[in-house]
Each structure stands twice: as structure tokens, then as C-alpha cells.
């Protein structure tokens, strides 16, 4: 049986077990634009949300999107508050001990953003003594702590808040997801701030891409999500969603 047929069979098995008649509860953070955010009307939107809805449509399941603060998002899954997490969560060995992941649905590097007139460098020596903002409980916090130990790490509950402190001059720079910061620079911070150096893509620190998390052992849902992900990547749905947010492909394929 080919890989494609295996995935199709997994999706069929999931639907046959009654998932089509049920609601698939998907958690996202709601504070990570353009991947997930709450708009002025209170609706949850973003790349992650559109991917989640496309997967639900492919699986013929109703899709309920709920928001959950980042530092409680895995505990919420383990407590049964929702069925899966689609929230730009990097796949790491540490997280794989707590949850199971689908194949990565996108890949991005960890970028340093700082004032244009700054001579800061994205090296251990260049960040020595610098105050760097990161979102807490993320791979980016792990990256700065382990790869740039001379930096003073300042953690925030959201990327928006560390960007506000960067604009206020309370930080020398921030390290965050490359595509997220690309959007921020285009829409808000580009007059005064810029990328410094090349984005870090070392899987040892930031994982092998963003995956969808499910409770450990939930192989039926995991296989069905992988099948649906494969389908939307092949039929053009993924590319159309990608184009809504980025001028370049972020696919992990």
C-alpha cells in the first residue's frame, strides 16, 4: 500500500468511528499574529486558524476554535479541554514526551530584531550583556538561554508585549519566529527596526517545524490529521492559505 493510500485509509477510519458527526475542538493561543489572533469583532483568525478549519473540512468534522494562554495550552490538552492544538507549536523532543505531533505543517527560523541604528550582532559575543525579549515557555526562550548565555533574558506572556517593550526602548532586541516578525516589521516596526543577521534554524534549539499536537496515544486522530494535511498540501488549499499571509512559501515539505 502506498503512503498516500495509507493516509487515506487512516482518514476514512477516523470518520467511520463517528468523528464526522462530532465537533473537533481545536486550541490556539489567539495572541500570535498573523498565525493566530482575535480581531476587533472577537473572532479568532490567522494562518493557524485557517489551516485548522481546512483540516476539519477535509475530515468532514465540525470545527470549534478555542483560545488558551500559551503556558497552559499543553496542560489543557492533557486535561481534555480540547482535542488538538494548532498554535504554531514547534516540535521538540521535550514536548514529544508530553504530546504526540503530526508532521510539521510549516517551518521557520528564530530571528533577532533590533533598532536599525544598533550594532548588535546575532552571535554569542554580539548578545553579551544585551537585554533580549522572548515569549516565555517557547523554543525561542530556550534558544537564547542555551546558545547565547551572555544575554540577559527577559520573558513575556505574548510576542506583542515584548515588541511593545522593544519600541519603548526597554530591550536591546527580541528573538522570535522569523515570519511573525516579518509581518510586524511590514505593518508596524519597519521604520525603526530590522532583522539582524541570519535566522537560526538549528533543530537542537527550535525544533523541526511547527506541528499539530494531540494527546499521547490518540493515533486515530493523529493519522486523520496527517492524512488531511497531506491532502490540503496536494490540492492547493495549503498554498492558497499561505498566500493570504506570506509572499513566500512556509511549507515544511
Characterization of this structure:
It is built from ten helices and 13 strands. By secondary structure, the chain is of the alpha/beta class. It has two domains: 3-107 and 208-245, 3-Layer(aba) Sandwich (D-Maltodextrin-Binding Protein, domain 2), CATH 3.40.190; 110-205, Periplasmic binding protein-like II (D-Maltodextrin-Binding Protein, domain 2, 3-Layer(aba) Sandwich). A five-stranded mixed beta sheet has the order 5-1-6-13-7.
Q: Give the count of structural domains.
A: 2
CATH-derived topology of the largest domain: D-Maltodextrin-Binding Protein, domain 2
Describe the strand arrangement of the main beta sheet, using strand numbers. Answer: 5-1-6-13-7
Largest pleated sheet = 5 strands, mixed
What class do helices, strands and sheet pairing give?
A: alpha/beta
Shape type: globular
Give the fraction of residues assigned to helices. Answer: 25-40%
CATH homologous superfamily assignment of the largest domain: Periplasmic binding protein-like II
CATH class of the largest domain: Alpha Beta
Instruction: Give the DSSP E fraction (strand runs of 2 or more residues).
Output: 15-25%
TL;DR of this structure?
The protein has ten helices and 13 strands. The protein has helices at residues 3-16, 47-59, 73-78, 93-96, 139-147, 159-167, 178-189, 203-206, 219-234, 237-245; strands at 23-28, 31-32, 36-38, 44-45, 62-67, 84-90, 99-101, 110-115, 131-135, 152-156, 173-177, 193-195, 210-215.
Main attributes?
253 residues, alpha/beta, D-Maltodextrin-Binding Protein, domain 2, five-stranded mixed beta sheet, disordered N terminus
Amino acid at each position: 500500500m502506498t503512503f498516500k493510500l495509507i493516509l487515506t485509509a487512516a482518514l476514512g477510519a477516523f470518520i467511520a468511528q463517528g468523528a464526522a458527526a462530532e465537533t473537533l475542538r481545536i486550541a490556539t493561543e489567539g495572541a500570535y499574529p498573523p498565525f493566530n489572533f482575535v480581531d476587533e469583532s472577537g473572532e479568532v483568525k490567522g494562518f493557524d486558524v485557517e489551516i485548522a478549519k481546512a483540516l476539519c473540512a477535509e475530515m468532514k468534522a465540525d470545527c470549534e476554535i478555542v483560545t488558551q494562554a500559551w503556558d497552559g495550552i499543553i496542560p489543557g490538552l492533557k486535561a481534555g479541554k480540547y482535542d488538538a492544538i494548532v498554535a504554531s507549536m514547534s516540535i521538540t523532543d521535550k514536548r514529544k514526551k508530553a504530546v504526540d505531533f503530526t508532521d510539521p505543517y510549516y517551518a521557520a527560523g528564530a530571528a533577532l530584531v533590533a533598532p536599525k541604528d544598533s550594532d548588535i550582532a546575532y552571535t554569542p559575543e554580539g548578545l553579551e550583556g544585551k537585554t533580549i525579549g522572548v515569549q516565555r515557555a517557547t523554543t525561542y526562550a530556550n534558544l537564547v538561554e542555551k546558545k547565547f548565555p551572555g544575554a540577559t533574558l527577559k520573558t513575556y506572556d505574548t510576542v506583542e508585549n515584548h515588541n511593545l517593550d522593544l519600541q519603548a526602548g526597554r530591550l536591546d532586541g527580541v528573538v522570535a519566529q522569523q515570519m511573525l516578525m516579518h509581518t510586524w516589521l511590514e505593518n508596524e516596526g519597519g521604520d525603526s527596526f530590522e532583522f539582524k543577521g541570519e535566522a537560526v534554524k538549528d533543530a537542537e534549539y527550535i525544533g523541526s517545524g511547527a506541528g499539530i499536537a494531540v494527546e499521547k496515544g490518540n493515533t486515530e486522530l493523529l493519522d486523520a490529521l496527517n492524512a488531511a494535511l497531506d491532502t490540503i498540501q496536494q490540492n492547493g488549499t495549503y498554498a492558497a492559505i499561505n498566500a493570504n499571509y506570506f509572499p513566500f512559501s512556509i511549507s515544511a515539505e
